[in-house]
Design brief:
Layout (H helix, E strand, L loop, with lengths): L1 H14 E2 L9 E5 L4 E7 L12 H9 L2 E4 L8 H12 L7 H5 L3 H10 L12 H15 L8 H11 L3 E4 L3 H9 L3 H15 L2 H13 L3 H11 L4 H20 L8 E6 L9 H6 L5 E4 L2
Parallel strand pairs: 1-7, 3-6, 4-5, 4-6
Antiparallel strand pairs: 2-3, 2-7
C-alpha cells in the first residue's frame, strides 16, 4: 500500500501542471481528446452570500456545456427524496439508535448531553444518519445551510442558463456508501459527529480558510486528520467513491462537450484525490487559480 501511494504521488507530480499561485479554491482541468473536463471542490453548507461563481470557476462554468454534481437532486421530488432516505436511514429490524450503538450507547449519550442533544429523539435511525443529522443541525444553528452551499449556487445558475445537470452517482448510491458501513464504523461515525457538534463553527472555519486560500496541503492534512484511525470509514466515504468517479470522468473525455464536475473539496486532495487518480492514468491535469 505504501509503495502504491508513493507511485501515485510521483505520477501526480509529473503530470499535474502547476499554474501561477493565487488565492481561492482552484479549478482543475483534465484534457480529453476532444474536450475538457473541469473539476471544482465544493463546500456543501455555507452562510448566505459566502460563495459566488467568479474567476477560474466562472470561466470553467462558461466553457462547460453541462454540469455534474455528486447527485442531481433537481430530478428528485420531495416525496422521492424522503422515501429514498427513509429506506436507508431507518433500521430494517426496528432497533432503536441506543440498541444499534451497543456498548458505545452510554458514551454516545454522554457526548450528546454535552452537546445539548437528546439521542432518544432519533428513534430507529441508524448511527450514520443520526451523525449526519446532528452535524447538519449544529451547523444550521451557526447559519450554515445547503441552500447557500456551492452545489446549490451552481445548480441554480445552471438551471437558469438551461445547462444540463447530471449526477456522478444516484442518491441511493450515495446513501448506500454510508448505509453499507459496518456497524462498528457507523458507531465511530456518530461519536465523531457528536464531538464535532460541540464545536462546529471552529472546525468548519479552519477548513473554510484553507479552502478559500486554495491551500491543498492544508486540506490534505484536514482529510488525514478527519479519518485518522478509521480506514474503513475512509474507504467507504472517500476512496471507493473517488475510484468510481474517476471511471465516470474518464468516460467523458471522448465526448464532444465540455463538463464542469463539482464534488466535495476533500475529494480533490491527496494521493487518492481525483486529480491524482486521473494523472495516474496518464491524463494531463492542470491546476488553475482564480
Amino acid at each position: 500500500m505504501r509503495g502504491h501511494r508513493v507511485a501515485v504521488a510521483a505520477l501526480f507530480a509529473a503530470l499535474v501542471v502547476p499554474a501561477v499561485a493565487a488565492e481561492g479554491p482552484p479549478v482543475w482541468s483534465v484534457a480529453g481528446r476532444t474536450n475538457t473536463v473541469y473539476l471544482f471542490g465544493s463546500v456543501h453548507l455555507l452562510k448566505p452570500g459566502e460563495f459566488v461563481l467568479q474567476g477560474a470557476l466562472e470561466d470553467a462554468y462558461e466553457d462547460a456545456e453541462a454540469v455534474f454534481l455528486e447527485v442531481d437532486m433537481d430530478d428528485l421530488s420531495p416525496l422521492e427524496l424522503a422515501a429514498a432516505t427513509a429506506y436507508r436511514a431507518i433500521d430494517p429490524q426496528g432497533r432503536s439508535l441506543d440498541e444499534l450503538m451497543g456498548g458505545d450507547a452510554a458514551l454516545a449519550r454522554d457526548r450528546a448531553r454535552e452537546a445539548g442533544i437528546d439521542l432518544s429523539s432519533f428513534g430507529k435511525l441508524e448511527p450514520w444518519f443520526a451523525g449526519l443529522t446532528i452535524v447538519s443541525l449544529a451547523l444550521a444553528r451557526g447559519g450554515y445551510t445547503a441552500d447557500a452551499g456551492v452545489e446549490r449556487v451552481v445548480q441554480d445558475r445552471a438551471t437558469a442558463d438551461e445547462k444540463e445537470i447530471l449526477g456522478l452517482e444516484t442518491l441511493d448510491e450515495q446513501l448506500a456508501a454510508l448505509d453499507s458501513m459496518e456497524i462498528g464504523v457507523q458507531r465511530e461515525f456518530l461519536l465523531k459527529a457528536l464531538d464535532d457538534a460541540q464545536r462546529p463553527a471552529d472546525a468548519l472555519e479552519n477548513f473554510l480558510r484553507s479552502w478559500r486560500e486554495g491551500d491543498d496541503e492544508a486540506l490534505a492534512r484536514e482529510l488525514a486528520s478527519e479519518f485518522a484511525g478509521a480506514p474503513e470509514l475512509y474507504r467507504s466515504l472517500m476512496l471507493d467513491r473517488n475510484r468510481n468517479w474517476v471511471e465516470r470522468i474518464s468516460g467523458l473525455l471522448d465526448d464532444p462537450r465540455d463538463y464542469l464536475v463539482v464534488v466535495g473539496a476533500l475529494h480533490l486532495v491527496g494521493p487518492d484525490g481525483l486529480p491524482a487518480l486521473l494523472a495516474a492514468r496518464g491524463l494531463r491535469v492542470t491546476r488553475h487559480g482564480p
